[in-house]
């Protein structure tokens, strides 16, 4: 267990414990820390923040990973970051590996997020390990001639775009089980059409409404979902034969709720919402006035970085108000309109803005949402 920042709450300020150092957790920690009224404790298993937007560029661009793996050591002024594996989250405290007693709190913000196999996300706890992992992957991509990507969600699309942009002569095939990229029907047709066109211009071959039979092929590492070596795979419906020497399986994101299942808050996990925590109109976990949930783990609205930030700011403001005995704020208002931004290589991308009617934009969005 490692600790960076102030180890002692000398002024006996109210303790806000935040579990999870993704977009929502970090934004909430920064907002509360800035007030100077709280002792903020952020717990995460990693020593760094993973800037996930545009992160797949690190798979092809040397040194890009340094820009997206940001150490937590300067995050807080009035508090600390605890690097530890969370074992149990309960209303009475948070139990972490390496510490006998649970960490106590006055307020708890649960922002445990979700996990995805590398290179969609990174599991390594130390920055140096993650950097070495990216270097290794980049070499594998450079050496490969035929690349298969299974899954046409944001990760599959962005990975295909990055590889095709930097290595235009590679044979890249993307197989997606749906009839359109992403989740068909959630966005305007123009959004899907432009995404497909962007990949097409880069030479990516797309197979829709089909799956790949991997047979008994296994992954070398549970945190990685890519397969090395020469293989010939067959799609299950069209019986299309695909030869590949590097295969990425870009499916299977899952919520980080294991530590919730190990405690009494398991009762508030909603099986109809993939095991997310049920929250009320103030983002409080139902039945608890001082426990909040934001981001992917919350049952409220879509799971996007900018919405996690919005929820974080709301909760930080709410905690500040109730600590100072002020009236409750207005209830949290979820976004009314769907939105998504997907980069397609360093020179392209498509987005649908969260406006009435859903304005679709493209071409230059990569300039605004990646380093």
Describe the fold and architecture.
The protein is of the alpha/beta class. The chain has 2 domains: 2-116 and 254-323, 3-Layer(bba) Sandwich (FAD/NAD(P)-binding domain), CATH 3.50.50; 127-252 and 337-369, FAD/NAD(P)-binding domain. It is built from 8 helices and 23 strands. A 6-stranded mixed beta sheet has the order 1-6-3-2-9-20, with helices on one face. α1 (23-35) packs parallel to α7 (305-323). The longest helix has 19 residues, at 305-323. It is globular. The relative contact order is 0.16. The model has no long low-confidence stretch (mean pLDDT 92).
Summarize the structure.
The chain is an alpha/beta fold and 371 residues long. 23% of the residues lie in helices and 26% in strands. It has a 6-stranded mixed sheet, with helices on one face.
Name some characteristics of this structure.
371 residues, alpha/beta, FAD/NAD(P)-binding domain, 2 domains, six-stranded mixed beta sheet
